[in-house]
Amino acid sequence: MLARNVRVELVRAVPADAVLVDDDAVEVSTKAIRQWLRAAGYSATGVRLVRSRRHQHFIVRVRPRPRSLHERIALQLLLGSDKHREANNLRRAMALSAMPRRGQASANVLYERP
Description:
This protein has a single domain (about 15-100), classed as Alpha-Beta Plaits, CATH 3.30.70. The chain is about 30% helix and about 25% strand. The protein contains 3 helices and 5 strands. It has helices at about 30-40, 70-80, 85-95; strands at about 10, 20-25, 45-50, 55-65, 110. A 3-stranded antiparallel β-sheet has the order 2-4-3. A two-stranded antiparallel ribbon has the order 1-5. Helix 2 packs antiparallel against helix 3.
């Protein structure tokens, strides 16, 4: 079976204070994101929503900013991000934990159609 050519854009320039939420079920709302962050001791300084036909992505700027990649992944899970995506992000984070902080950015991957 041949894979269809699907053009995707890898979101690379993720600010240090941002978490990425991949909401495939379209169940997450901006209000819910702010409530869950508040419950965890964070606040949202900005929320950007990117919709596609079947799902939505949120890029959420948080304060205080996550101190580690593992903390960022935990926040993404808390905010309702796709569990399969976050499981893969966690596996990459664990494999990359010996790398310098600069190299760890590639463990948090979010794809969007251009």
